[in-house]
Fold this protein.
Amino acid sequence: MVQLERQPAGISHQDPSPRTPRIPGGFPARRPRRLRRSEGLRQLVRETHLDPADFIYPLFVSETISRPIPITSMPGQFQYPLSALGEQAIAAAELGLGGVLLFGIPEVKDALGSGAYAADGVVQRAIRAIKDAAPDLLVVTDVCLCEYTSHGHCGFVRDGEVQNDETLELLAREAVSHAAAGADVVAPSDMMDGRVAALRDALDAEGYATTPIMAYSAKFASVFYGPFREAAESAPQFGDRRAYQMDPANGREALREVEQDILEGADIIMVKPALPYLDVLARVRDRWELPLAAYNVSGEYAMLKAAAANGWLDERRATLETLTSIKRAGADIIITYHALDAARWLAER
Ligand code: PBG
């Protein structure tokens, strides 16, 4: 290591004194606590800053309800009817959030998830409602079939298996219909092979060459999606998602998934969940320059909320520390159910 500090004068090896650094250049010349003495100093040297514009707020919109319904496993989150979305959008815009991410719960589900790509589907109508209420708020849509299929899987099922290539066409139709309804960004979360290329081709062919794709690139088969499946009514009716989402044990494979999405045309890449995968996030950050998103998922939110409700954690500090850790690990964008609260707390500081 390069020695930066001068040795204190008058000290030799024969003449040890209490001020002799045991490690040359270390203490007492170097005192890391000097920069921690006051909030002014701490702020001056702070490496990571949260900004409401970093946050994307997920919203669940349901066609089957007429007033907001609380999601029990996600305190503070609701399924919203179309009529209540405008208010949420205005709150998000006023707080300066980066955007909202829409999930739809259709009235009717079928084997092909046709509600996902219906021109007057729930998300398509939600996009228009939000654009009416808050025209400048960025609207991202989740592109997946699981909320729309009767079996709850993310693709077309035959013989008990999700069929990759046949699913691509349905996803492409869904993305195009979101873009046509006014979505600013489409975000495929299904984990089919080749979906980014399929979406890019379809969007380009239909006149949406300028619509960016935020790809859920390294999406793991995580137990932390549990509360979401209550919220989105999208739990698989048989089996699980391990034949298409990634094995939680695989970090190197995550890098290959990200690389493939970039080659296929992803504009923004994502790691999901966030907290149990901060190592993956940091490795992706080191390797690629693309904007990087992390999804602080429903189970991560539920854990923190449960601890806070019991008085075991200070909710505000735990939330801001969590979000800071995700950003420090390398995320530019954080998709989080804490978005509104965190933005309010940041404004108060
Ligand atoms: C849809 C989708 C899921 C989530 C986002 N998009 C659920 C899943 O894959 O089962 C999870 C988000 C969360 O837990 O907050 N496929």
User: Anything to note?
Assistant: Residues 50-348 form a domain with the TIM Barrel fold (CATH 3.20.20.70). The radius of gyration is 24 Å.
